[in-house]
Amino acid sequence: MTANATHHSPSGRVLVVCTGNVCRSPYIERVLAHQLNGSGVTVTSAGTGALVGYPIDPESARRVAAAGASPDGFAARQISREDIAAADLVIAASREHVDEVVALNPRALRSAFSLPDLADLLAAATYDDVVSAPGANRVAKVAATAVRMRGRVHPRPLSASGIVDPFRQKPEVIDRMVHEIEATLPIVVSALRG
User: What is the CATH number of domain 13-193?
Assistant: First the structure.
């Protein structure tokens, strides 16, 4: 259920960001889109230093398929200001990626989070918190809820605030990436599905 970020999505748009856009962000994009299938949410990804045109890393692609999603037809792309402006929520692999997103578009300060940080913030929120949050769609409401929770949730230490980068690493590092994503993504999926 991936689509170009410029396409209209009444349920909202999620942009996933990492560095090369070949390991972490495509894995999250494809698995998140699969788990949100039927919700109307559009999920895309991009890299801050993308290997433009490259497919998903083969080890990441295997993990995507194992999660029940499809790695087919993917091509890495460089993030743009327009991508960020079109997104209701930006999920980054690390706080460093959040910083790069906000540097490109300062308005993203209210919509960009590392995946572990976002999961922590949403874990502390209730269904009513999301429903009552401002926003034109469910995804925007989830982002607004996470912003509201920032003052109530103690932040993770920096060392635990991101997803490990498995690029050109051993398969065990890809397994660690998947484990870190699986430990946090279900909370985000639950909030986005409502």
Answer: 3.40.50.2300
